[in-house]
Amino acid sequence: MRSGSSDRRLSPSHAGAGALILAVAGAAYGVGALAGSTPAADDDWPQNGRTVEQAHYSPLAQINPATVQRLSLAWSLDLDVTNSITEPIEVGGVLYLAAGYSIVHAIDVRSGRLLWRYDPHVPQAAGKKLRVGWGIRGLTYGEQRLFVATHDGRLLALDPASGHLLWSVQTLDSHNGAFISGVPRVFRGKVVIGNGGDDFSALRGYVTAYDTNTGRQLWRFYVVPGKPGTTDHAASDPAMAMAAKTWTGQWWKLGGGGSVWNAMTYDPDFNRLYIGTGNGSPMNWKIRSPGGGDNLFVASIVALNADTGQYVWHYQTTPGDTWDYDSATDITLVTLTIDGRPTKVLLQAAKNGFFYVIDRASGHLLSAEKLGKVTWAERIDLQTGRPVLAPGARDLKGELLWPSFEGLHHWLPQAYSESTGLMYEPTVEMPVPYSDQGVDKKSWKPMIGTPEFSGLTIGNADVPKNGGHSVLVAWDPAHQRRIWQIDTPGISNGGLLATGGNLVFEGLADGYLHAYSADRGQDLWSFFAGVAPTGVPITYQVDGRQYLSVTAGPLNGSSAAFGSASAQWGWQDHVQPRRLLTFALDAKGTLPATPPPQPVKPLIAPEFQIDSDKAKQGSYEFLRCLLCHGTAAVAGGNAPDLRASSVPLSFDAFAAVVRGGTLIKRGMPAFPELSDAQLNSIRHYLRARARQ
User: Fold this and answer.
1) CA angle 141, 143, 147 (to 5 degrees)
2) What values do phi and psi take at 132, rounded to 5?
3) Closest Cα to residue 198, out of 328, 316, 350, 87?
4) Starting from the edge strand earliest in sequence, which strands make up the sheet with 311-316, in order?
5) Which among 313, 540, 563, 640 could disulfide-bond with 634, CB atoms 3.0 to 4.6 Å apart, if both were Cys?
């Protein structure tokens, strides 16, 4: 832990085998010139967050409170994919995004025309890795290349003009449960990528840097220590000696966790890479480290030398994490005035519910306050930098704690406005009962696709519509206080964009994209997208005209798995499209006809005789399915609602899909290990749920 003074006042101051390339005359759209050009700092959006500081802010102001009522749809493009779409990026009048499983699309901004498409055929390559996750969150332009990662663990460099593969490197063990969902980061001839999956497998987190020209590995930093007495010959070796002192038992047999699945921010001022690390694996602290300990470097922000990957400093937000309160939310770099002097700080709203201001030079904690409802800890002690736990928070006997394992703030990006000095946070206030009652802590083993993936008791109950709610918060990081807030519908809110035009944009689960005044939170403009626009908005300028783009579709990701709380909006997988929407002032585009939202109608199928004992066992077996098909089999958009599917009515058809993998190309993984009895129990459970 690093700490700082408590009395300071702050103020703002593949063209290879199997790939599909649809090449269009790129030069006609200016793409040919792109590879040799330098992105304009203000006009373009070349990476997630626009700049390395990850502020999700653009100084463009053509769209502002006086003009926003003229903002209208320029064009939309429906994409032939079955799951998530990344935050788009834009360089030189071309938009790039990865949709579905890392299928890269290049689109002309002026017309909305598809220029090329590159498909790395991830579902066929992923194997068991397909059982967790829904694709990646973004791609990056840098050093005249596009960098994109794949779910199965490849890091790819593409020619932005044609989509041809320049190089590919496998970053993961193809036989374990690790996968990639994050965004590559590019700086100083290096591209870095992490991975995830330690919620479901025995994994040890790490981040790796590669040469941008060749894909040659340059360095690797492991987040948690390996087996004592072993050396990894990695940049992290000296730091691991320190970290091992904070672990007990034989944690290395269980992986340890700490995956770098999202947050990585490069700091050019100090030539450092800050990584936000994941929770411990297994989640249950009593299993992975039975004698206690802080378990470094899980749930931490770690500063690394960007050239060598060597440890510089760390701050652990949740020591000995047992609630899935990781530090993998985005890290934003700003300068605040402290004691009358400009101080370079990093800002993070961690999953645990606290908003942190940390000195980048030293790693010292300057301040930390609750961003919303938090009951697991009373406060952060600024002298020690440690949370003061609430009584019983570690008991895991069914205590209802805020926030849930989804976090108060999850991966969806925050936005910091250089104009207002405020941070805008998409938050979710939802509790969960934490329990390990009935878990055999001595014989627990982590395996992909099994219900016991966390070491906690995971329920399969439906979450009611009002089981949680979301709030857009405007937060003053200098004085650690809320300036304004807007209650937003449901628990699936979108990422944020702040602009120099005094606007904040966010898409919501009910289908509306909003523009709010950044200073006061007034709702100035909205647009119904025909489906939920809960992607991450970006803005950029082409030919002197400011554009705004955002992705939309049925709900996706973990927040779409909470039963009725997610399904209440009526967005259905394979019914509504996944689409890219682009707006400009006085544009004349029209939204394509879109199936309206409607609730799922379960099939009653009275001819199916339900065996209650089999249905009960099926409820347990279905735990491996709920991440996509929803708790209590109520799907929120990730995948079809199986209560309404005719496939489970036939054992042979159901076995062909689930065990035989006939729908792998559409993202449905195969479970060849499931017995007839297990499959049949799930069928009975689904029939019972349909009739309920």
Assistant:
1) 40
2) -130, 140
3) 328
4) 264-267, 272-276, 300-305, 311-316
5) 563
In the chain, what are the helix, strand and coil shares in percent, each to the nearest 5?
15, 30, 55
Candidate list 267, 324, 326, 359, residue with the active-site label: 324
Residue type for position 428: V
The C-alpha atoms of residue 449 and residue 495 are separated, in whole angstroms, by 29
Q: What percent of the chain has pLDDT over 90?
A: 83
- Helix (H) or strand (E) segment spanning residue 498: strand 496-499
Contacts of 106 (CB under 8 A, 6+ apart): 26, 31, 94, 95, 96, 114, 115, 116, 117, 160, 163
Which tokens sit at 418?
């250089």
CB 532 within 8 A of CB 549: no
Dist. CA 522–CA 372, nearest whole Å = 21
- Mapping DSSP onto H, E and C, the string for 164-202 reads CEEEEEECCCCCCCCECCCCCEEECCEEEECCECCCCCC
CB-based contacts of 318, cutoff 8 Å, min separation 6: 298, 299, 325, 326, 327, 350, 352, 387
pLDDT at 40: 45
Give yes or no: 324 in active site: yes
Closest by CA position to 223, among listed 255, 253, 192:
255
pTM of the shown model: 0.93
Q: How buried is residue 476: exposed, middle or buried, by Cβ count under 10 Å (0-12/13-18/19+)? A: middle
For 352, how many CA atoms within 13 A lie in the half-sphere containing its CB? 32
3-state SS, residue 654: helix
Categorise residue 233: left if φ over 0, alpha if ψ from -120 to 50, beta otherwise: left
At residue 517, the 3 state secondary structure works out as: strand
Length of the chain measured in residues: 692
DSSP state of 533: -
Helices H / strands E in the chain, number of each = 9, 40
> Residue 452: which pLDDT band, with cuts at 50, 70 and 90?
low
Measured CA angle at 187 (ends 185, 189), to 5 deg: 115
Q: Whose structure tokens read 């992105």?
A: 39
Half-sphere exposure of 95 (CA within 13 A, CB side): 32
Q: Is the pLDDT of residue 443 over 90?
A: no
For residue 320, the surrounding DSSP H or E stretch is none
pLDDT score at 673:
94
pLDDT at 27 over 90: no
